[in-house]
Amino acid sequence: MLEDDLRKMLHEWADQGLLRHVRETQSPQGPTIQFDGRQVHNFCSNDYLGLANDSRLGQSIVNSIRQEGYGAAASRLLCGSMPSHHRLEREMARFKGTEACLLYSTGFMANQGILTSLFGKDDVIFSDRLNHASIIDGIRLSGASFHRYRHVDMDHLDRLLTAAPPAQRKCIVTDTVFSMDGDLAPLDRIVELAGKYQAMVMVDEAHAMGVMGDTGKGCCEHFGVADRVEIQMGTFSKAAGSFGAYCCGSRNLIDVLVNKSRSFIYTTGLPPLVAAASLKAVEIIERDQAHRNKLWDNTHYTRAALRLAGFDTMDSSTPIIPIRVGDNEKAVTFSRRLFEEGILVLAIRPPTVPPGTARLRMTVTAKHNKADIDYVLNKMQHIGKELQVI
Asked: How far apart are CA 209 and CA 247, in angstroms?
């Protein structure tokens, strides 16, 4: 019976153009990669600063292995808390301007652990409709009352906050850079509303760290509101080119998470070499502005050319550039045609994005050069006309 049900589900997804497959990358990350057996221009990774294959991170890994070994071998509350973990937590607290920091193994685990530890059935959480799945799942698991406001619609958020009982504990949770749309949460307005209604603010800076702000601290720095955001989480797996996640905030916040967050307590600590690589990445992000300047030069050039060609890049204002196609099958066909031309830009379909908004998700990095970008733009324009996307 199970196999019959599984086959039915797979057939239904295939008929709807929603069936997904795991494909293999056979080279280190970079502007060009070996993917499914061929060399392609890589315009779909989150390696915004090109650090995923940076030799400086590699050397920090080698040094860590010599001093700390490979695996943590236990949860951090047992004997799995290594020097690199503590150094990274201290550095992230300094970097983000908070009292303390706690590492998590993944962003998904961080969001679930934070939300389920801090909120319960007597609380109410307000969440942007396009927040990451890890935020949505964390809110649901917390048992808190859950209200979604229309994407970046501050008037709608204001009305929802007005309707909430004044005595009820409130929190506004948002991504700062939305991973499928490439636009920004208006954090200045959000913290203003939070102050008006005595609500907390939690942000997910996964796609903002290293990209946004004068020194790459993220959107809290970009909007100048870091001191008005109680909970800052993010990941090291995008611009930092490494792995793992963090939560930065007050000392009391971190102490509560250490004692209550199940996704921290009941899992083995990150391999210390991963923490060491992340530590080096944070140093590079803060000190090397050239990477970020090149990233933004490439981003502005690419998005302007796509818009001039007639593509709908939605409200993107970051290195994540969605290209709205609409139809699921057409989006898949567009991606496949690009792959035939040696270009990797993948189709994003429901349920990752709302029905009717299937798109190509193009990401630009600091390592792309103008010749490669021009080649991709030329092919995209040709195929876009062929498929009547433009």
From this structure: 13
Contact between 42 and 35 under an 8 Å Cβ cutoff? The reply is yes
The yes-or-no answer on residue 260 being catalytic is: no
238 is catalytic: yes
Q: Is 207 a catalytic residue?
A: yes
> Looking at 41, 207, 280, 368, which residue is catalytic?
207
Q: Catalytic pick from 170, 222, 238, 291?
A: 238
Each residue of 276-318: pLDDT tens digit?
999 999 999 999 899 999 999 999 999 999 999 999 999 999 9
CATH of the domain at 81: 3.40.640.10
Amino acid at 80: G
Catalytic member of 179, 261, 278, 335: 179
CA 71 to chain centre: 25
- Verify that 39 and 156 share a domain, yes or no: no
In a domain, 151, yes or no: yes
Q: What is the pTM of this model?
A: 0.93
Structure confidence by residue, pLDDT tens digits, 69-80: 999 999 999 999
